[in-house]
Amino acid sequence: MPTRTLISGRLTSLSLTEQGRKAVTITRAGSFSDPRYGQFDITPALLGEMVFNFQSRTYGQDIHIDVSHKPDEGSAGKVARLWIEGDRLMAEVDWTPYGRKAISERGYQYLSAEYTENFIDNERQQPHGAVLLGAGLTIRPVIKRLDPIELAEPTGLHHLLADQLLQEARKTMSTHLHTLRDRLADLKLSDKIIGQLGDGFTAAAKHLGEDDPAMDALVEQFVGTGKTLAEAFGERDATINLSVQAPRPTAKGLTAADVERILSERETARDAASKKLAADQSALRGQFRAALDAHEGVKHLGEELRTLLLSAEGLITPNMTVEQVQALAAQQTALADQVAVSRKLSALGWQGSTRITMGTDHSPLKLQEDIHQGLRQSYSFGSSRTGLRLTEEAKLHPFAKRVLALFDRQNAADLAAETRLLADGGPTKVANMDVPKGFQRTVIREALSDLAILDVVQTLTDPNAQGTTQIPYELRKAGTIVNSGIVYESAEIPRASIEQKMDLAYINAMKLSMKISNEVMHFSSASLIDWDAYGRNVASNARLIRELVCQRLANEMQRSADAYAATAITGEIIAAQMDGTKSLIKTAQWPIVRPMQYRDLAGGTIGSALNPIALSINGAAIPAWDGTGTQTAGNYYVVENWNLGLIRVVNQAGVAQTPTHTSGATTIGYSHATNIVKFDLKLPASTKLEDHLNAALRLVGARKAMLSASRYIQADFMLMSPILNDMLTNATQFAAEAARAGSALTGSGDLATIKALPAYGTNAPGIDLGVERLIMGERGTLSYVVAKPYMIGQPFEAVGANGLPTGEKISYGEEYNALHVPLPIRNRLTSIIYSDSDARTAAA
What we know:
Layout: E1 4-7, E2 21-28, E3 30-34, E4 38-42, H1 44-55, E5 64-67, E6 77-85, E7 88-95, H2 97-104, E8 110-116, E9 131-138, H3 159-186, H4 191-205, H5 212-233, H6 256-293, H7 296-299, H8 303-310, H9 322-347, H10 362-375, H11 379-382, H12 398-410, H13 412-422, H14 437-449, E10 458-461, E11 468-476, E12 498-506, E13 508-517, H15 518-521, H16 531-563, E14 567-573, E15 584-586, E16 614-617, E17 620-622, E18 635-641, E19 646-651, E20 667-672, E21 676-680, H17 689-711, E22 717-720, H18 722-728, E23 751-754, E24 757-761, E25 773-777, E26 783-792, E27 796-799, E28 805-820, E29 829-835, H19 837-842
Parallel strand pairs: 5-9, 10-26, 21-29, 22-24
Antiparallel strand pairs: 1-8, 2-7, 3-4, 5-6, 6-7, 8-9, 11-12, 13-28, 14-20, 15-19, 16-17, 16-20, 18-19, 22-25, 23-24, 25-29, 26-28, 27-28
């Protein structure tokens, strides 16, 4: 354990009890953090060990304070006494002139304690617990907002001594005042005159202290004045003006014997208090030992373990209560019981460790198997239209397993309860009016088991993510290693050209409401499970989630690929296209890069929009149509085809509009992708489609070679629509008599392999790829991170158009995830667009 140095509080403002000695706060209990040691705690028990080891002189020498942790420059003070006061470690310090000068003249106003949590002596090599090694005066504390050290004047009196002297002086004056009043009363003076004379005596005597002769002389002086007043006024009241010259006090101060006596009394009281603390500590430790000795579990332990348990008495301080000592003893006896149980189990042949766990967890797997057993008897399992896959556990995608494991940890109790109820046998009933967790798990499982696009993205789970997550990636530097890595004696060794990095991605909430029939909801006590209804609901909800995830993954992959080396177009004039007969705008350059605006979970924008679209007609800005139908009346734009650069002008309801250019700017600004190549499907003269498509296949090989030669990327997948893949397979190259290695209808992926690249289809509508684009690149470029798997909340009743219930429930679910391609690796993706130039020209 390394020695720690931390800053304590300021010195107290009491005067010095002896020349050069001052009470200080060394440190306090609490939790702290320091770049050198990380997070650490100082507990009251740790402070108690320091005091115990200080009193036992465990360190084997005096504990000194230095300046700036430089002990070789001399001692600033020696710790004379150490104790605990509340949560603070206090000490009395004998300051040296060197230390006093550092505080008062050089500005060293803070203390930094040095200690070790487990001191091992260098003679017997025995551990002793926490030991204070010293402290240093410093000017730059680690812990801020501490009170500075203030040295008291060394010539001042301790406040206890001052109080004692003041009380003795008041007692002396009170005795003489009482004598004066009695003698004035004997003269038959009125009470008013006696009071005035008494006040005058008090005022005159306050500077005389305990000087008895001076007090006696002053009393005689006031008695003489009283006799004169008695002769003049008798017993009548009168107001008098006194002018009394107090006698000069006898030159008497504190003698050496007086000071010695006062200090001796104080030292005696302090010694008595110390003895009482020691006695209290001894009594508490005796109670601790007695509690352990009386416990049966401790009695059966060996001497070594028994001694180890009893060593905890070193944590007991005089300030601890009996209840705290009893709690410490209870903790130690509980440890003794655990050891005894472990020994008995070992004697019976048990070689493991006992613990309570949820299983590995087998409850979700057992529940899933029970549900699958029912669904295999349903119509949905045998229907190709609904497509329930019910994939075996061993064949499940690894990412699906990780997401389900995360879901299982977050819903362990509910899954275990449903497992027990389903395992009862006979008619299957589950008393749960919420959406059953088993149903939710089955929906997630079905959605992810039929998501082929997961094979080409990096899939991660991050249950601890909040608003952001970190995406790992590798980056290869351009250039080669000098001399092919051959290094001669004493020469510099070249650095590897591959770096491991992390990139920041923002978590988004993907939310979806779904409708579930009452057959599934009453999975409960009133009815049996209708597995056909259950299967239909699982299939439909899984399909919705699968299509939504697939759409987002494919669109983000295309956007990131197009954003690489994109060219910004500003102020492109489109006035000729806005002639009052057209609603479609065709950009001069295409494809268009989809704009991107990063947002936090609350919808707040982060940074500026990337690759924005700016459309202006007659000088008026035209915003994007959001499809909600709630926008104000006016013109909006919607991109109909990103690949071909086709933009439609619509109104707030999405109906096409045909604006006319009259005056002002009618322009468009956008970014067009350059990380693509285009292939015109328009047939040249006297050319068959099958032969023309051979050139389309050669373009795939050329683009694959470009990635390898220019970007050091080995493309290992393609993503395209099944329609495009089917068209490319019509090339004569695929004919049985002309088949080539690397272009076949078999291989990994769910479409035909082209140029040895597995091809994957997109099984979701509304994807930007359309039927024109093919994306190729390196797997894992796009990352899909799930922070919270899809979960469904409390369902509510569904109603029809007339407000009547439909016997269905609507539930709202959400998944927290992030989709991201780190900026430095966007070049690992590229695209080919297959389109007919005549068809684009004719588009209206």
